[in-house]
Design brief:
single chain; mainly beta; 7-stranded mixed beta sheet; 4-stranded antiparallel beta sheet; 1 helix
Length: about 130
């Protein structure tokens, strides 16, 4: 079973950057795709970014497009998310997730395609 552990600073000022990491364990070959989603109070999960297992495909959601960078280092089993020019509306709990069939099904944008989730990181963007 794959486990995901998130790390990164949760308090950011407006205009600052968000840098999160997601480290996977329990899988020794054929890395899975990893996605990032966020959930603000009273709202559903929103797609933020995703990267294929090999790292050759990356996607950013509409709300962060132009501000988003996702990358991975498979030698460290780690995926990194950076979002710049943060605004208060970027405040949410951010989750990383992975799944065995995300690459095969190309279900990068839908939370239902992912099987395992990180613990979540509360990100608060202060004015």
């Amino acid at each position: 079973q794959v486990q995901l552990v998130q790390a990164g600073e949760g308090s950011v000022q407006t205009g600052g950057s968000l840098d999160l990491s997601c480290t996977t364990s329990g899988r020794t070959h054929n890395p899975y795709a990893v996605g990032w989603f966020r959930q603000a109070p009273g709202k559903e999960h929103e797609f933020v970014a995703a990267i294929s297992g090999s790292g050759d495909k990356t996607y950013c959601g509409d709300s962060v497009k132009g501000r988003c960078t996702i990358s991975r280092d498979n030698t460290k089993d780690a995926v990194y998310l950076q979002v710049t020019s943060l605004q208060p509306e970027d405040s949410a709990v951010y989750f990383c997730a992975t799944g065995a069939y995300v690459d095969t099904m190309r279900s990068y944008f839908h939370e239902g395609g992912y099987d395992e989730w990180g613990q979540g990181t509360q990100v608060t963007v202060s004015p």
